[in-house]
């Protein structure tokens, strides 16, 4: 079938995982349920396993799963893979739209022979005129290599399809083999027909009951990164479980054994299901005579498929001594609850997956020491760049992407159980690209600030930021940048701002941290007014940039998502067997104060209140700062906002803008505030004098009289 139909079929068959209703793809967390995380073995991805049943080919053949020439969306011009000119493409389109073959021949007059005959062959194929189609394709192939340079490969592939449609499977298989010979010799293959030919030969082999040959062709196709080949292997595996005679053939073939083992490990939930069986599904649109087709002929009956237990019983009856793919079979047996069989099979393999199975079996037996040894083997065996999700259409549904990250994080859980917290940090950091919340938990709540700083200085150097993808204005962060930023914010929260500066990756945030540091140094000024200015400067910085400067990575602020989502609760510490002895005490000691979402808003509001207390209560600066302190809490803690507002009403002066108090606040006028005490004394004196003037006047008259009397008395004496 064509690739679009194949993908549609897969979409219906995939067991999709539950997805978030909205928001980003939140990273997984293993520390939340430590026991389950250690005892459960994640399933692999079938398409990844199918692609490596055989070694990566050394040739340069490539899979092209969709046709850029005959795409369903014709609203956007597509590049022509064969190098046809615009005029040639227009004539080809007109030929295909012609009423009959004679009309198409007339329309194609003047085209190069290879283009004209290839197009006529495609038209004939669509009409079901196999003989005419084959004649036209052979006419192209009869041209000299330079004359058929553009469409010779497509003609050879289409001839094979025509022969197959006529029932000449041997001739078709030989013709498909020629396609690969040509591609390997260097003839251009823009449509990826050489890789597609492997799928077609696999279909022919399957039609003839040659299970091992079919699996080999499909595996070769999948090894060339063909999702179509991997899909064919999926259909074959499902069919094998429903046909005992085919299953017996497969169990005699090492490659088929690996296929079945991979299927059990990655799709155990499908065992026993009534899936569509692999069958012949010819392309419904023969107009695209050069499109791919990979699935196998239909079988009329649909017997009941074996469930996992029945399949493992069949494998055991066939014999485990010669079974290839024992590690995948061991993983499948483990997930099926057959721990005895999983142990036997895992012991027969030295792969990373087998070591991972042995580690989990040791944990089930309560042997953490052996488990740690097997985990170390698994960590050494999984390549750092191994990604089970790959780049396929359904990568986002992968239960596990990078197995090394999972193994390292599970090792970190065991280190927590041993109370080896720095070791736990090292393991969690190694898996942080997939399990960042686990690394963040240890870094923010388990290690002390000094332990974290020492670890970061020794293991997490500053690196340049990863560039954003084209069309994506979000910041690309790495685990190293995330951990350094987490440390910086912890240092700021405990008042060590100067030490935090080098750990901020964003120059803009570092600039704000420096401004905060400068303001903190200024709040030791000798005058209360200068201290108030410094405190309010800190308050504004903390309120406007608190998430970046001091936000908690996990609860209560959830800085890992910029505070956009409410933080999850911290991992439970109830499972004492896997919790470090003083882990709970460390978590308590590292608690964020106040323990409330957007905790820095409380700090900013408190700083503003402290600043306001240093200026005259009747000043505009007092009112402005109390206004800001109130406003910063309106959407966070209404009770706190109400308390601050009532304090202002008790102490502050009336302001014209009071109707928007807490919503629209002016800048504090510190310059005017310095003269407020003097103005208040002056006005008080005037008020007193205004009320006491008769007495003052009388007193003044008395004084003047006394003075005059004294002078007159002095003259009489002389």
Detailed description of the structure:
With 718 residues, the chain is an all-alpha fold. Among the domains are: 83-189, Alpha Horseshoe (Serine Threonine Protein Phosphatase 5, Tetratricopeptide repeat), CATH 1.25.40; 418-463 and 476-600, no CATH class. 59% of the residues lie in helices and 0% in strands. Helix 7 (130-141) runs antiparallel to helix 8 (152-165), helix 8 packs antiparallel against helix 9 and helix 10 (193-207) packs antiparallel against helix 11 (211-223). The termini are far apart. The relative contact order is 0.07. Mean pLDDT is 85; it is low at 1-24, 67-77, 280-300 and 680-684.
List the helices and strands and how they pair.
Blueprint: H1 3-13, H2 34-39, H3 46-51, H4 86-96, H5 101-107, H6 113-126, H7 130-141, H8 152-165, H9 169-184, H10 193-207, H11 211-223, H12 227-242, H13 244-251, H14 254-266, H15 308-318, H16 326-335, H17 339-346, H18 352-364, H19 368-381, H20 403-417, H21 421-430, H22 432-446, H23 449-459, H24 479-493, H25 497-500, H26 507-522, H27 528-550, H28 583-589, H29 599-612, H30 620-634, H31 638-651, H32 670-673, H33 676-717
Helix pairs in contact: 4-5, 4-6, 6-7, 6-8, 7-8, 8-9, 9-10, 10-11, 11-12, 12-13, 14-16, 16-17, 16-18, 17-18, 18-19, 19-20, 20-21, 21-22, 22-24, 23-24, 26-27, 27-29, 29-30, 30-31
